[in-house]
Fold this protein.
Amino acid sequence: MWDFKGVDYYELDALLTPEQKLIRNTVRQFVNESVLPVIRESFEEGHLPRSLVPEMGKLGLFGANLKEYGAGVDSIAYGLIMQELERGDSGLRSFVSVQSGLVMYPIYTFGSPEHKKRWLPKLASGDAIGCFALTEPGHGSDPGGMESKATKDGNYFILNGNKTWITNGTNADVAVVWAKLDGVVRGFLVEKGTPGFSAVKIEHKLSMRASDTAELYFNNCRVPKENLLPGVEDLRGPLMCLNQARYGIAWGAVGAAMACYEEALNYSKERIQFDKPIGAFQLVQRKLVEMLTEITKAQLLCFRLGQLKDQNRIKHTHISMAKRNNVAMALQIARTARDILGANGITLDYQSIRHMVNLETVYTYEGTHDIHTLILGHDITGLEAFR
Ligand SMILES: Cc1cc2nc3c(=O)[nH]c(=O)nc-3n(C[C@H](O)[C@H](O)[C@H](O)COP(=O)(O)OP(=O)(O)OC[C@H]3O[C@@H](n4cnc5c(N)ncnc54)[C@H](O)[C@@H]3O)c2cc1C
């Protein structure tokens, strides 16, 4: 059975409150006992481990940072939840990120009182699943160019367009869909079964296999006019949601890196070559030391980011820096761990290659690595380099 102790070289635990530690340890135990025994099979079969959804609901992991509808935990506790989940699998953390940051958050922040009453309790318990539909086949990094359109027709909006790469698209009871109404980006709640709305699973992924991803089609889809999110207009809406999710990713990537580091460290002490454990060779030690140093730096970044968030001093560029650094760091660590594991590292008997291929997605989604470079470059020079 798994007995993960965490990676804490700089004694960051000493800075956590008893409540933050309790939350972290509870999710850590859930991942050890419920996620790790099933994740390999889900990954191999290529689907979300759906049986875990009610358990995550009971633990209060959906919308955990929202007051009234969630436990209202602070930002560091929220980050620690994401860290522990992604130590299990990036697909599982993605599920919780989407449900919390990309579905519950916009309904909570931009929705009407009726939207909140109808959806938030069910989404919090896991009795309903949500998805967030921004990306289109022709518009990924540049969502402002989206072609999905809504037009008014009496008491309805008629939605036409096509979204792709949508996490939970085939499982969702409600989709938060971003489309242009009179040329302005608006958010619509589209319920499963709405005439003209269909979702098709994207098959043959080699990354994020324990997460379901879909294409969504809106073909003269009739959405009741009450389903428009009233509280936001233009790209600010989806970008505010993405900030929530990117914050969680910055922490989650540390969890994936910790899993790979721990696996490589243990292996290096057991694997004998040239009559010695491979961990006794200087080159292997150097790799392990670099992994631990990068994890420690990323943890410090996250911890400070959490403080800034709770003090309402966080800027989207702070989040960009942490997402950009921590995901690249985790991807590099997963590759190095895979290398230390030798040939064994290419099988799913070990975790590192699963984390490695998952992190290829994390590097690309929620703003690619290079898009975050440009966001930061813009911030420090005042000069925009996007176009
Ligand atoms: C498994 C998975 C799940 C996802 N889940 C969701 C979801 O739930 N909802 C959702 O809406 N989307 C989702 N996405 C989509 C994701 O957010 C997009 O893939 C991402 O925004 C990048 O868009 P793209 O793939 O079209 O790449 P592109 O935008 O085409 O980028 C391709 C390359 O060009 C580079 N590039 C683009 N523009 C510039 C520029 N100006 N300067 C320099 N380089 C540039 C990029 O950095 C990248 O390297 C998901 C994606 C994956 C893989």
